Amino acid sequence: MSAIDDLPPLRDVIREHSLSARKSLGQNFLLDLNLTARIARAAGPLEDSTVIEVGPGPGGLTRALLALGAKRVIAIERDERALAALDYIAKRYPGRIEIVHGDAQRFDPRPLLDGAKAKIVANLPYNIATQLLVDWLSIEPWPPWYDMMVLMFQREVAERIVAHEDEEAYGRLAVLANWRAETKILFDISPAAFVPQPKVTSSVVRLIPRAAPEPCDRRMLEQVAAAAFGQRRKMLRQSLKSLSADPARLAAAAGIDATQRAETIPVAGFVAMARELADIRATK
Ligand SMILES: C[S@@+](CC[C@H](N)C(=O)[O-])C[C@H]1O[C@@H](n2cnc3c(N)ncnc32)[C@H](O)[C@@H]1O
After folding, report:
1. Which CATH number is 10-209 given?
2. Annotation: CATH topology of 218-282
3. How far, in Å, from the CA of 174 to the mean position of ligand 1?
4. Structural domain boundaries of the chain?
5. Quick check: do 10-209 and 218-282 share a fold?
6. Complex-level ipTM
7. Ligand 1, atom 17, residue with closest C-alpha
8. 3-class state of residue 50 by DSSP
9. What is this structure's pTM?
10. What pLDDT digit, counting tens, does each position of 147-178 carry?
11. Phi/psi at 204 (5° precision)
């Protein structure tokens, strides 16, 4: 019997289904059900929730979500071998889990949600984790179809998500993430908890989408952040040249001193510059 349910230990499931981890699928399995329960609990009370899980693998996190009362888990998995393995969970929690075979990068859960908000909870495959997050933060129209994300990343990526100005990890990802969501690193998980062990520590990050982020065109924001951080050691009057013939004026119109560098500008400053850029483009 396991720590959270009456199902077999994950090591037995992996052995029975020959689920040796594949690097190409970013597979590092978390076999400690106390830890998967800690991640599931970080998503708050689950009783009325529909949870989207990316990459359930042998099902450690899936089991925790269901044991803690998630009303429904929609799990999308690319690895066919894992689909067969997950059957034991479907039998234990009839009607509460839907397993979708496919690529999370092409998966739109909206038709399955009937307008209700979901939570995204996942130990993401590290090779596509950042891109998945950017896609979820770029959803239009905003607010999106989820009301919370609890996601595991490599520690270094987690730091780039939650960073603020004047911090080393501050960059394009933090601007997008903190513009659209409240972000927080909740706790770390050591490499020793995974099979196989990754080289680096992982962190669980919670993102709660803002209902009304400061209005601006997301693509303009991305362009300003890309130009400014593309030359992060340069002053804005230099780094924004690719966007505007008069970058000092663009910054000044947004209330920003163009002798500053990208890393010192808060998200609100990027938003103000994105609005000015949109105005300049509109009057051209
Ligand atoms: C880091 S493992 C996590 C497995 C499990 N949730 C756990 O915590 O032990 C990532 C999982 O994502 C799956 N995966 C990889 N690429 C995927 C994709 N594009 N779409 C859906 N699942 C994917 C892998 O097969 C693997 O099961």
Report:
1. 3.40.50.150
2. Helicase, Ruva Protein; domain 3 (1.10.8)
3. 24
4. 10-209, 218-282
5. no
6. 0.99
7. 78
8. strand
9. 0.97
10. 999 999 999 999 999 999 999 999 999 999 99
11. -95, 125
